[in-house]
Amino acid sequence: MNLREKYHIPHDSVITIAGTVGVGKSTMTHALADALNFRTSLEKVETNPYLDKFYADFERWSFHLQIYFLAERFKEQKRIFEYGGGFIQDRSIYEDTGIFAKMHYEKGTMTPTDYETYRNLFDAMVMTPYFPHPHLLIYLDGSLDEVLDRIKERGRPMEQQTPISYWREMHKRYEDWINSFNACPILRINIADYDLMNNKASIEPVLEKIGHFINQSRY
Ligand SMILES: Nc1ncnc2c1ncn2[C@@H]1O[C@H](COP(=O)(O)OP(=O)(O)O)[C@@H](O)[C@H]1O
Ligand SMILES: Nc1ncnc2c1ncn2[C@H]1C[C@H](O)[C@@H](COP(=O)(O)O)O1
Fold first, then answer.
1. Which PANTHER family is this protein grouped with (predicted)?
2. What pTM value is reported for the model?
3. Is the CB–ligand 1 distance for residue 4 below 6 Å?
4. Which residue range is the domain that position 97 belongs to?
Protein backbone atom coordinates (compact mmCIF):
# COMPACT_ATOMS: atom_id res chain seq x y z
CA MET A 1 0.00 0.00 0.00
CA ASN A 2 1.41 3.40 -0.93
CA LEU A 3 1.40 6.45 1.38
CA ARG A 4 -1.52 8.08 -0.39
CA GLU A 5 -3.66 4.99 0.16
CA LYS A 6 -2.33 4.48 3.69
CA TYR A 7 -3.58 7.94 4.71
CA HIS A 8 -6.76 7.81 2.59
CA ILE A 9 -5.90 10.86 0.52
CA PRO A 10 -8.05 10.94 -2.66
CA HIS A 11 -6.00 10.65 -5.88
CA ASP A 12 -7.62 13.78 -7.37
CA SER A 13 -6.94 16.06 -4.40
CA VAL A 14 -5.66 19.59 -4.99
CA ILE A 15 -3.59 20.83 -2.06
CA THR A 16 -2.12 24.30 -1.99
CA ILE A 17 0.72 25.39 0.30
CA ALA A 18 0.55 28.92 1.68
CA GLY A 19 2.87 30.99 3.83
CA THR A 20 5.27 33.86 3.83
CA VAL A 21 8.39 34.06 1.66
CA GLY A 22 11.06 31.59 2.78
CA VAL A 23 8.86 29.62 5.21
CA GLY A 24 9.38 26.37 3.27
CA LYS A 25 6.51 26.08 0.77
CA SER A 26 8.57 24.79 -2.18
CA THR A 27 10.35 22.26 0.01
CA MET A 28 7.02 21.02 1.38
CA THR A 29 5.49 20.98 -2.12
CA HIS A 30 8.23 18.64 -3.38
CA ALA A 31 8.11 16.42 -0.30
CA LEU A 32 4.34 15.99 -0.46
CA ALA A 33 4.29 15.44 -4.22
CA ASP A 34 7.00 12.75 -3.88
CA ALA A 35 5.20 11.05 -1.03
CA LEU A 36 1.80 11.08 -2.74
CA ASN A 37 2.99 10.67 -6.30
CA PHE A 38 1.22 13.90 -7.22
CA ARG A 39 2.21 16.54 -9.75
CA THR A 40 3.64 19.88 -8.63
CA SER A 41 2.60 23.37 -9.58
CA LEU A 42 5.61 25.56 -8.75
CA GLU A 43 6.34 29.27 -8.71
CA LYS A 44 9.13 29.73 -11.25
CA VAL A 45 11.32 32.46 -9.79
CA GLU A 46 14.25 32.13 -12.24
CA THR A 47 12.15 32.76 -15.34
CA ASN A 48 10.07 35.61 -13.86
CA PRO A 49 10.91 38.65 -16.04
CA TYR A 50 9.78 41.22 -13.47
CA LEU A 51 10.94 39.96 -10.07
CA ASP A 52 14.44 41.50 -10.01
CA LYS A 53 13.12 44.78 -11.41
CA PHE A 54 10.29 44.77 -8.87
CA TYR A 55 12.63 44.40 -5.89
CA ALA A 56 14.78 47.23 -7.28
CA ASP A 57 11.80 49.59 -7.77
CA PHE A 58 8.44 48.60 -6.22
CA GLU A 59 6.53 51.64 -7.50
CA ARG A 60 7.55 51.11 -11.10
CA TRP A 61 6.96 47.35 -11.33
CA SER A 62 4.37 46.23 -8.77
CA PHE A 63 1.43 46.31 -11.18
CA HIS A 64 3.35 44.49 -13.92
CA LEU A 65 4.46 41.82 -11.48
CA GLN A 66 0.95 41.23 -10.11
CA ILE A 67 -0.47 40.85 -13.62
CA TYR A 68 2.34 38.44 -14.49
CA PHE A 69 1.70 36.32 -11.37
CA LEU A 70 -2.04 36.33 -11.97
CA ALA A 71 -1.58 35.06 -15.54
CA GLU A 72 0.91 32.39 -14.43
CA ARG A 73 -1.28 31.14 -11.61
CA PHE A 74 -4.36 31.10 -13.78
CA LYS A 75 -2.56 28.99 -16.41
CA GLU A 76 -1.51 26.62 -13.64
CA GLN A 77 -5.08 26.46 -12.38
CA LYS A 78 -6.19 25.43 -15.86
CA ARG A 79 -3.46 22.75 -16.04
CA ILE A 80 -4.55 21.34 -12.67
CA PHE A 81 -8.15 21.22 -13.83
CA GLU A 82 -7.22 19.55 -17.13
CA TYR A 83 -5.31 16.79 -15.33
CA GLY A 84 -8.27 16.26 -13.01
CA GLY A 85 -6.36 17.11 -9.81
CA GLY A 86 -3.65 15.15 -8.02
CA PHE A 87 -1.55 18.29 -7.47
CA ILE A 88 0.46 20.07 -4.81
CA GLN A 89 0.57 23.77 -5.52
CA ASP A 90 3.36 26.04 -4.26
CA ARG A 91 1.52 29.19 -3.04
CA SER A 92 -2.17 29.90 -3.48
CA ILE A 93 -3.64 32.46 -5.83
CA TYR A 94 -5.36 34.04 -2.80
CA GLU A 95 -2.03 35.29 -1.40
CA ASP A 96 -1.34 37.44 -4.47
CA THR A 97 -4.27 39.67 -3.74
CA GLY A 98 -4.74 39.12 0.03
CA ILE A 99 -1.09 39.75 0.87
CA PHE A 100 1.07 41.18 -1.90
CA ALA A 101 -1.14 43.49 -4.00
CA LYS A 102 -2.93 44.77 -0.89
CA MET A 103 0.32 45.43 0.95
CA HIS A 104 1.84 47.36 -1.94
CA TYR A 105 -1.32 49.39 -2.39
CA GLU A 106 -1.60 50.20 1.32
CA LYS A 107 2.09 51.04 1.56
CA GLY A 108 1.81 53.37 -1.45
CA THR A 109 3.94 51.32 -3.84
CA MET A 110 0.96 50.47 -6.07
CA THR A 111 -1.33 53.28 -7.21
CA PRO A 112 -5.05 53.18 -6.28
CA THR A 113 -5.96 52.97 -9.98
CA ASP A 114 -3.58 50.06 -10.63
CA TYR A 115 -4.84 48.29 -7.52
CA GLU A 116 -8.46 48.70 -8.59
CA THR A 117 -7.71 47.43 -12.09
CA TYR A 118 -5.87 44.45 -10.63
CA ARG A 119 -8.66 43.69 -8.14
CA ASN A 120 -11.32 43.88 -10.85
CA LEU A 121 -9.37 41.44 -12.98
CA PHE A 122 -8.72 39.13 -10.04
CA ASP A 123 -12.37 39.12 -8.98
CA ALA A 124 -13.59 38.51 -12.53
CA MET A 125 -11.16 35.60 -13.01
CA VAL A 126 -11.04 33.98 -9.60
CA MET A 127 -14.02 34.83 -7.47
CA THR A 128 -16.56 33.16 -9.74
CA PRO A 129 -18.55 29.95 -9.21
CA TYR A 130 -16.52 28.41 -12.05
CA PHE A 131 -13.18 28.72 -10.29
CA PRO A 132 -12.17 25.41 -8.63
CA HIS A 133 -10.91 26.09 -5.10
CA PRO A 134 -8.34 23.67 -3.64
CA HIS A 135 -9.57 20.87 -1.39
CA LEU A 136 -7.10 21.98 1.26
CA LEU A 137 -4.81 24.90 1.98
CA ILE A 138 -1.84 24.00 4.17
CA TYR A 139 -0.64 27.09 6.00
CA LEU A 140 3.01 26.93 7.07
CA ASP A 141 3.51 28.91 10.22
CA GLY A 142 6.94 30.03 11.43
CA SER A 143 8.36 32.83 13.56
CA LEU A 144 9.79 35.91 11.87
CA ASP A 145 13.30 34.95 13.03
CA GLU A 146 13.04 31.44 11.56
CA VAL A 147 11.79 32.86 8.29
CA LEU A 148 14.54 35.49 8.11
CA ASP A 149 17.15 32.79 8.71
CA ARG A 150 15.75 30.76 5.84
CA ILE A 151 15.62 33.72 3.45
CA LYS A 152 19.25 34.39 4.31
CA GLU A 153 20.26 30.76 3.91
CA ARG A 154 18.53 30.49 0.52
CA GLY A 155 20.41 33.59 -0.59
CA ARG A 156 18.32 34.99 -3.48
CA PRO A 157 20.19 38.29 -4.10
CA MET A 158 17.10 40.51 -4.52
CA GLU A 159 15.65 39.22 -1.24
CA GLN A 160 18.93 39.81 0.65
CA GLN A 161 18.89 43.45 -0.41
CA THR A 162 15.31 43.97 0.77
CA PRO A 163 15.00 45.65 4.21
CA ILE A 164 13.89 43.47 7.13
CA SER A 165 10.93 45.82 7.65
CA TYR A 166 9.44 44.44 4.40
CA TRP A 167 9.55 40.84 5.69
CA ARG A 168 8.25 41.92 9.11
CA GLU A 169 5.29 43.68 7.52
CA MET A 170 4.57 40.64 5.36
CA HIS A 171 4.83 38.26 8.32
CA LYS A 172 2.29 40.30 10.28
CA ARG A 173 -0.06 40.49 7.31
CA TYR A 174 0.08 36.72 6.84
CA GLU A 175 -1.05 36.18 10.43
CA ASP A 176 -4.02 38.51 9.98
CA TRP A 177 -4.85 37.10 6.56
CA ILE A 178 -4.95 33.44 7.62
CA ASN A 179 -7.09 34.26 10.65
CA SER A 180 -9.85 35.53 8.39
CA PHE A 181 -9.33 33.23 5.38
CA ASN A 182 -12.37 31.13 4.46
CA ALA A 183 -12.21 30.34 0.71
CA CYS A 184 -11.34 26.67 1.37
CA PRO A 185 -10.46 24.40 4.36
CA ILE A 186 -7.16 25.19 6.13
CA LEU A 187 -4.65 22.95 7.88
CA ARG A 188 -2.06 24.87 9.90
CA ILE A 189 1.36 23.34 10.39
CA ASN A 190 4.14 24.86 12.44
CA ILE A 191 7.53 24.53 10.77
CA ALA A 192 9.07 23.56 14.12
CA ASP A 193 6.98 20.35 14.05
CA TYR A 194 8.77 18.69 11.12
CA ASP A 195 12.26 18.65 9.64
CA LEU A 196 12.36 17.62 6.01
CA MET A 197 16.08 18.39 5.74
CA ASN A 198 17.29 15.93 8.37
CA ASN A 199 14.41 13.54 8.70
CA LYS A 200 12.49 12.66 5.53
CA ALA A 201 10.10 10.51 7.55
CA SER A 202 8.79 13.65 9.28
CA ILE A 203 6.47 14.01 6.26
CA GLU A 204 4.36 11.08 7.54
CA PRO A 205 2.67 12.90 10.44
CA VAL A 206 1.86 15.67 7.93
CA LEU A 207 0.29 13.10 5.58
CA GLU A 208 -1.70 11.68 8.45
CA LYS A 209 -3.11 15.12 9.27
CA ILE A 210 -3.88 15.79 5.60
CA GLY A 211 -5.75 12.49 5.28
CA HIS A 212 -7.74 13.13 8.40
CA PHE A 213 -8.54 16.69 7.48
CA ILE A 214 -9.30 16.26 3.79
CA ASN A 215 -11.73 13.44 4.46
CA GLN A 216 -13.53 15.48 7.09
CA SER A 217 -13.93 18.46 4.80
CA ARG A 218 -14.41 16.86 1.34
CA TYR A 219 -17.32 14.55 1.96
N1 LIG B 1 12.02 21.98 7.14
C2 LIG B 1 13.08 22.76 6.86
N3 LIG B 1 14.12 22.84 7.70
C4 LIG B 1 15.16 23.63 7.45
N5 LIG B 1 15.28 24.41 6.37
C6 LIG B 1 14.27 24.39 5.49
C7 LIG B 1 13.11 23.58 5.68
N8 LIG B 1 12.27 23.77 4.64
C9 LIG B 1 12.88 24.68 3.83
N10 LIG B 1 14.09 25.02 4.33
C11 LIG B 1 15.05 25.94 3.72
O12 LIG B 1 14.50 27.25 3.82
C13 LIG B 1 14.72 27.98 2.62
C14 LIG B 1 13.38 28.43 2.05
O15 LIG B 1 12.62 27.29 1.69
P16 LIG B 1 11.63 27.30 0.44
O17 LIG B 1 11.00 25.95 0.40
O18 LIG B 1 12.35 27.76 -0.79
O19 LIG B 1 10.59 28.42 0.93
P20 LIG B 1 9.41 29.15 0.17
O21 LIG B 1 9.04 28.32 -1.03
O22 LIG B 1 8.30 29.22 1.18
O23 LIG B 1 9.91 30.51 -0.18
C24 LIG B 1 15.50 27.07 1.70
O25 LIG B 1 16.87 27.38 1.81
C26 LIG B 1 15.19 25.68 2.23
O27 LIG B 1 16.26 24.79 1.97
N1 LIG C 1 2.06 38.27 -5.86
C2 LIG C 1 3.33 38.57 -5.56
N3 LIG C 1 3.71 39.86 -5.48
C4 LIG C 1 4.99 40.19 -5.19
N5 LIG C 1 5.96 39.30 -4.98
C6 LIG C 1 5.60 38.01 -5.04
C7 LIG C 1 4.28 37.58 -5.31
N8 LIG C 1 4.27 36.24 -5.27
C9 LIG C 1 5.52 35.85 -5.01
N10 LIG C 1 6.31 36.91 -4.88
C11 LIG C 1 7.77 36.90 -4.68
C12 LIG C 1 8.23 36.68 -3.29
C13 LIG C 1 9.52 35.93 -3.48
O14 LIG C 1 10.59 36.84 -3.64
C15 LIG C 1 9.31 35.18 -4.78
C16 LIG C 1 8.94 33.73 -4.63
O17 LIG C 1 8.12 33.52 -3.49
P18 LIG C 1 8.39 32.32 -2.44
O19 LIG C 1 7.50 32.63 -1.28
O20 LIG C 1 9.85 32.32 -2.10
O21 LIG C 1 7.99 31.07 -3.18
O22 LIG C 1 8.29 35.83 -5.46
1. DEOXYADENOSINE KINASE, DEOXYNUCLEOSIDE KINASE
2. 0.96
3. no
4. 3-218
